[in-house]
Design brief:
Number of domains: 2
Structural class: mainly alpha
Shape: elongated
Distance between the termini: 52 Å
Number of strands: 0
CATH class of the largest domain: Mainly Alpha
CATH superfamily of the largest domain: Tetracycline Repressor, domain 2
Number of helices: 9
CATH architecture of the largest domain: Orthogonal Bundle
Helix content: over 70%
Order of helices and strands: HHHHHHHHH
Radius of gyration: 19 Å
Length: 207
Amino acid sequence: MPRRTFHRAPEAERRHDLIEATLDCIAESGLEGATVRQIADRAGVTPGLIRHYFHSKEQILQEAYRVVIARLTEKASRVAGNPDERLREFIVINLTEPVANSRSLSLWASFISRVSVDPELAAIHREGYLGFRDALEALLAEFLAARGEDASPARCRSLSIAINGLLDGLWLEGCLAGELFGESELVSIALATVEALLGLRLTADSA
């Protein structure tokens, strides 16, 4: 297992380095295998230094899960362009690297197995899910309004729930067995399905 180079740095950067080492360990060994000792070895520090920044293993796991959730959502929430382009890019980003890869799946699977029994992780998961859905609802509202269609909160909420479920399923299939699909096949399926749900075409360059 390669060790990270740990250096003197501001507290925020030190915490970041320790969380990255934690994610490396979880991706390789799962939540149970990612012990404080293993994380310390990976970061090139003593277990005591980890306890200086995180009062328990549970706390560093919670912070690590926040990072996992943020990385699955933050890039997609920063899409730019006109309403057509932004909605289309949001879909594409969620089904391609670096959001969709084996490491992301390994981390997600490790944490999701604990969400139902750990209230703190459940709260982080819920916050991330709602943040993702809020971003999608906003994109749908802009897209539908620009087309002169019904962009009511109720309709956008319903559509965002359906599209989120679609993306989750295709993301999981792509991460688990990407070799079974052609290049961009899952993206094409997602775009076609979203168009069917909306009853409108998504174009890369809106008129």
